Amino acid sequence: MTSLDLPSVTRPDDLRAIVDWTAGELSSAIEQRLVSCVDVMTAYLDQIDRFNPRVNAIVSLRPREELLAEAAEKDALLARGERQGWMHGFPHAVKDLSDVRGLPTTKGFFRPLESVPRAQADAIFVERIRAAGAIFIGKTNTPELGLGSHTYNPVHGTTRNPYDLGRTAGGSSGGAAVAVSLRMLPVADGSDFMGSLRNPPGWTNVYGLRPSFGRVPSDTGDLFVNQGSVDGPIARTPLDLALLLDTMAGADARAPLSIPGPGVDLAALGRPLTGGRIVWFRDLGGYLPVEPEVLEVCDAAVEQLSGLGFDVTVRDDLPEHGSFTGTADLWELWRTYRHVLSGGSNRPLYDDPDTRAMLKPEAVYEVEGLLHGLDGSGPITAAQLFAASVRRSDLYRGFVGLFEGADFALLPTAQVMPFDLDTTWPGTVAGRTMSSYHRWMEVTTVGTLLGAPTLAMPAGFGPSGLPIGLQVIGPSHADTAVLRLAMTWDAATRWPERRRPPILDE
């Protein structure tokens, strides 16, 4: 990690207050030996014991005695003058779609839990978090196979929103976002194909970042065609977000499309972003059905950005270029892409009669979309996929032109506010019927298709008392730029600290 002066703190009289420190403050306190790693692990495990039974965010939690013993080993290293990295002694839980050596990877699907094999090796980004000194305490909950933005599954159950326990926390990084929001983890990793590092943070009043594709390397599955899902960070502050991204990022020979160099210019985060040019897409001129409360909160946040010195332009449509003829092309392009990648990756489970019977309807929808095409007339062909890839490329080229006159593009993190737990997915939005389990999340497809850094930051709270966020899309590889905007926003709003989940103060 690039050197950075982290904020300093003093030892609290009540060590339970350790969990209120930012990750940067926690790192500084451990390095200065203000608190021990055992103190830190005890405080976080106590926080988990207090709140996790109410929200079900952390799963496969390891025994306390094992974790305290590992924390004591970290203290022994410090006593010998050996500090592994900025996360030395941090408790960390990995989203239950990625492997952690010695822990089960259920993906919310494989069961019974006791029969799921323990992973033999870490995922690449997990290796890096381990090398930075973290202690892996368990996993964070995710929807079955990561499908759908509502975290429930037959293995571990349902994750609840800390701002209203009767509402969803989103997904598929729902467990990670809730764990950070409730101070059960200092930071968390997540993954994002269709908004999973954006929608849950937006609904839990924290920050999330879908990095530029290739920023965080992965060697799982296909290495060349599947440029959809990425791993990235979730945190309560943009600085913490940047610190974890910097740890996860960097080229790896096992991931041929990974980006060389540091993930973030940490030094640049100390220079305030005092203005810039923003395109606010809002609801794309009415193309996207969006609940009025979402637009009310997001419009107010964009107005506040304008007051901070940003030049805001409202735009009603996506830029046209070549075969991408405008916003109306978005959903067909997305469905082709999603069916091929998600349907293809889940097809082995569909082809096996034993596991097909266990699949949720959303997984079946994706595989059968691949096999029967958008109109049901036959499988998606290589020619159709190539045409979609060209159209996606032209969408990207259109945004290259847009970014010649703008620094950032904004959209809401979701088209609805957090919905009831017993709703699998919203069937209607703003009076319009949704045609699939993810049509109400279409607002997140743009950032994915661009492969561009797309950051979720808290926008505020609506009359319902629930939070929603803004997506900040930057030019290709401009991860540092979107983080700088988030730093400016956080300095002005402090949303995660101003509006803590109510159950924290009960």
Structure summarized in a few sentences:
It is an enzyme of class 3 (hydrolase). The chain is of the alpha+beta class.
The structural class is alpha+beta
CATH homologous superfamily (4th level) name = Amidase signature (AS) domain
Described by the principal axes of the CA atoms, the overall outline is globular
Write down the Rg. Answer: 21 Å
Major sheet characteristics: 8 strands, mixed
Q: Which CATH architecture would you pick?
A: Alpha-Beta Complex
Quickly name the level 1 CATH class.
Alpha Beta
Terminus-to-terminus distance:
38 Å
β-strand percent reads: 5-15%
The number of helical elements comes to 15
Helix content: 25-40%
Based on DSSP secondary structure assignment, what is the total number of beta strands?
A: 17
- Identify the strand order in the major beta sheet: 8-10-9-16-17-13-11-12
